[in-house]
Amino acid sequence: MKLQSLLFPQTGICTEEKMYFRRNGTIDFTWDKDYLNMFRDSSITFDTYFNGCSAEKWFKYTKIKKIRIFLHVKGQFRITLMRKEKHLDGTMTKFLHEETFGEPEQEGVYAFPFDTESNSGMFCFGLLCLSEDGSLYDGWYDGEVLPEEIRPVKIAIDICTFKREVFVAKNVRELYNCFLSNPRSELHNGLEIFISDNAGTLNPDHVLLCDKVHLFQNKNTGGAGGFTRGMIEIMNCREQRGITHVLVMDDDVIINPDSVFRTFVILSLLKDEYQDSFVGGAMLRLDKQYIQTEAGARWNKGYLISHKSGLNLLDTEACLYNEFEEKTEFNAWWYCAFPASVITESNLPLPIFIRGDDVEYGLRNCKHLILMNGICVWHEPFENKYASSMYYYIFRNRLIDNSIHNLRYKRRNFIRDLKEQVKREIVYYRYKNAQLLMDGVNDFYNGIDWLMAQDGEALHKSVMGRGYKLQDINDLSVPFSYPAYEQACRMPEPKRRTRIWRKLTANGLLLPRKKRADNDAPVVAPTFTARPVNFYRVDKALNYDYCSRKAFVTQKSMKETIRLMYKLWKIQLKSCWKYRKTVRSYYERRDELTNINFWKKYLDI
């Protein structure tokens, strides 16, 4: 059974060549071709993110007995089969087999087995062209498995969208062209797409390309409500349509359809003891497509640990590091597949609008998480998506998730974390953010009955109205200067003695404004990566969002500082008698939030 195809760089998806192959010598490849032309003595290796084979995981989780590489070529070549593995002192390469094959001017398909006593790490290969010229048209890794061991699989993709028409339409068309309209594809009858449109702005003509794509107008109840609406619709037709698995996927990602194919194959071949496994996709940056943001994560009571963050996937060693498995508790819903049987009328997500719904559902249901090189999506990095409204959800949803799972997030730790974040926003003069942090905590203390009674859309609109709004830089009182922005990003941290003094003076809040050589020079700070040093003894600052090219202005106010510190003191006092009681209530009544009757009322369906 085909496990994965050889992939080449493709415009509109990814053009980072070293994520696909590494060439040496004269090799002709352009993005509009789907094959490689090679000339005598040129060579190419496939020890890469997309074209290496995660052998260790294929053998661990699936029923395959042997792996082979099939190549469709024209010309004469020498192939070198290898197994690579990361060691403490670097990369270990084990050469498994070398063979000359093919004839000049002759086209054919050839197979080569990976025979080795150890299946650790990655299987990969290299090609050397021996004829005057040769072509590599196609290739794929194949797994030897008995026909009766292949399980029938049908995946329902669950997409929640809010005004992301371009992304959704593009991804649906890619999946339609590769699978749904292709009767030769294994996924022709093995895939359906369910889209919850929270904004009601998606043009049906752009997505309803066949009867396997379903569109639902949904109340704007955030990602949690949109994904849950899709789960309910899938659950209603699961038996009739033979759906075995659900793949939740964000609406603002770029995906290579082969990720879905590889997921389908893994699910078809799972060993009996791993039938309840989740298959996750890594998140890669959309702006730097070779940088990995996360491959599985641990919730860790809210002190999130993103595994293998920052890896440069152009490097073979980084790809080999990906082969190591670490303890994971969930995979984010930019790409996560799991058995459809997980979804029941009493096992639906939490109604927390955004931020943390995927975490909680993973904590509740994910026992094994399978991650492989080549299964991924590209997503805008979080530091490029500044939204003041998110501060409301930070502690509210952290407290709810921890309470639901009885994770014993101690009150003193919570108070410490809240104080740290509120004081940080005060230091940045972002008083609205500090207020939103505390608003979220107060609403947590309002209890489960309050949460169940909320109109999620109306609440979110209220939250957005209480935060900062990014505006055109020409409409603001502080002029924007890009050199000033660069200087703020690169400003060195102060020495230890200076840091102590700044701490004693609340980062200069207790001191007058610092006189500067040029009083008219603007003070600019980045929205997401701001540091206290950017605001030291500053009266007013422009907070610049690099991605949107917009900004908002904050200004020092002792009145607001005192008001918010008083609010913080009141929350600390309230926590002394209400924290444990509220946590216990959420834990004991958690089932009231995750059942079908509640969700139908919440979604008005």
What does this structure look like?
The protein is α+β, with helices and mostly antiparallel strands and 605 residues long. The protein has three domains: 2-147, Jelly Rolls (Sandwich), CATH 2.60.120; 151-384, Spore Coat Polysaccharide Biosynthesis Protein SpsA, Chain A (Alpha-Beta Complex); 390-558, no CATH class. Helix content is 33%, strand content 25%. It is built from 16 helices and 26 strands. The strands form five sheets. Strands 12, 13, 14, 15, 16, 17, 18, 21 and 22 form a nine-stranded mixed sheet that branches. Helix 9 runs antiparallel to helix 10 (431-445) and helix 9 runs antiparallel to helix 15 (558-588). The chain starts with a strand and ends with a helix.
Please supply descriptive tags for the structure shown above.
16 helices; 3 domains; alpha+beta; 6-stranded antiparallel sheet; 605 residues; Spore Coat Polysaccharide Biosynthesis Protein SpsA, Chain A; 9-stranded mixed sheet; Jelly Rolls
